[in-house]
Design the sequence.
C-alpha cells in the first residue's frame, strides 16, 4: 500500500519509508505473537483466531475518518492494536512459563 500510494503520487518518499518500516515492525510483532500462541497451545488454531479477531475488530470495525481522507492512519491503529495484543499474549506466556518452571 505505501509503495502504491507513492507511485500514484498520493504520498512522499519519506511517507513511503516510514509506512514501510511500520509494516515491517507490524509483521515482526505478529510473527512473534503467533509463535508464542503456538508454544502456549501447541495448535495453530489460537493464532488463526487471533488473526481473525484482529482483522474483524482492529482493521474492519474501527475506522477513523480524517479531514484528508478516510482512514489515513490505518497503520497506526493496526500497530497499536497489535502491540496491545502482543503484550497480553506475552504476559500469558511469561505467567505460563513461571508455573511450569
Sequence:
Amino acid at each position: 500500500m505505501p509503495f502504491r500510494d507513492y507511485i500514484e503520487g498520493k504520498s512522499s518518499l519519506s511517507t513511503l519509508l516510514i509506512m514501510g518500516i511500520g509494516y515491517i515492525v507490524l509483521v515482526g510483532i505478529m510473527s512473534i505473537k503467533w509463535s508464542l500462541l503456538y508454544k502456549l497451545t501447541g495448535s495453530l488454531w489460537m493464532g488463526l483466531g487471533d488473526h481473525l479477531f484482529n482483522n474483524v475488530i482492529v482493521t474492519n470495525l474501527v475506522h477513523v475518518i480524517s479531514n484528508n481522507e478516510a482512514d489515513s492512519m490505518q497503520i497506526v491503529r493496526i500497530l497499536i492494536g497489535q502491540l496491545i495484543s502482543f503484550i497480553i499474549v506475552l504476559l500469558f506466556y511469561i505467567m505460563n512459563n513461571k508455573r511450569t518452571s
